[in-house]
Amino acid sequence: MIGDRVPDCCRMPHTSAVEDTLRTVFVRSGRSEPVSTSALADELHVSPPTVSIMLKRLTAAGLLRRTDGHLAALTEHGAAHARDVVRRHRLLEAFLAQELGVPWDEVHSEADALEHAVSDRLVDRIDRHLGRPERDPHGDPIPRGAGGLDEGWGVRLDAAPDGSTFDVERVYDRDSAALRYLAGLGIQPGVRLDVTERQPFGGPLWVRVGAADHALGEPLTHLVHGRVVA
Predict the structure, then answer these.
(1) pLDDT tens readout for residues 120-133
(2) For residue 2, what are the contacts with CB-CB under 8 A and spacing of at least 6?
(3) Neighbours of 83 (CB within 10 A)
(4) pLDDT score of 150 more than 80
């Protein structure tokens, strides 16, 4: 929102690299994943030395701090800036999906390119045009105002008990091929499925979507989040 701005004392050039780094730290922190130099390098597709330089700049600007375990964490001002970037990204995803029909496995990369160019005023117009949506196509909440880093990822599908009924609420969006595959199985936010069987020794998890049974390996079950309803 126009009123939710980062204080001037912590401003630094809003390059795409700065914004991508802050957004990635925000998302990984919300998923309780380690925010290490190597993890950020893998996700941002850059070298560890490049990430190290960026982390030092962001720390000097008061947007990041280093934890006792030498991991990156957002400061209060850094979190405010990151939420603004995340809001832009997820509103753009919602707009691309709802208004232009861009498939859910493509909106992340498209929004990633656009989020650094659109103005706050345009983002606010998109928000009003869409009716102030609460979530993007992957079920991720669209930040509004101040808040913490806990985005409520709920229960991961692989943790749902055998024989339970599971409501899909969010699907992690970093793997477009996995998103296409899951969509082909009918597994998207808003879908209710049944956990029917778990094969031993790291075998697949069997789920029933409608009348169809599907075997999901660990990489896929780690992407699907929601809540157990029965």
Answers:
(1) 999 999 999 999 99
(2) 120, 121, 124
(3) 24
(4) no
Is 1-151 a CATH 1.10.268.10 domain?
A: no
User: Alpha-carbon distance 102 to 116, whole Å?
Assistant: 19
- The torsion of the CA quartet 66, 85, 138, 176, rounded to 10 degrees, works out to -80
**Which pLDDT score is estimated for 2?**
41
Question: How would CATH label the architecture of 155-228?
Answer: Roll (2.30)
DSSP letters of the chain? -TT----GGG-----HHHHHHHHHHHHHHHTT----HHHHHHHHTS-HHHHHHHHHHHHHTTSEEE-TTS-EEE-HHHHHHHHHHHHHHHHHHHHHHHHH---TTTHHHHHHHHTTTS-HHHHHHHHHHTT--SB-TTS-B---SS--S-----EEGGGSPTT-EEEEEEE--S-HHHHHHHHHHT--TT-EEEEEEE-TTT-PEEEEETTEEEEE-HHHHTTEEEEE--
Q: In the chain, what are the domain boundaries?
A: 1-151, 155-228
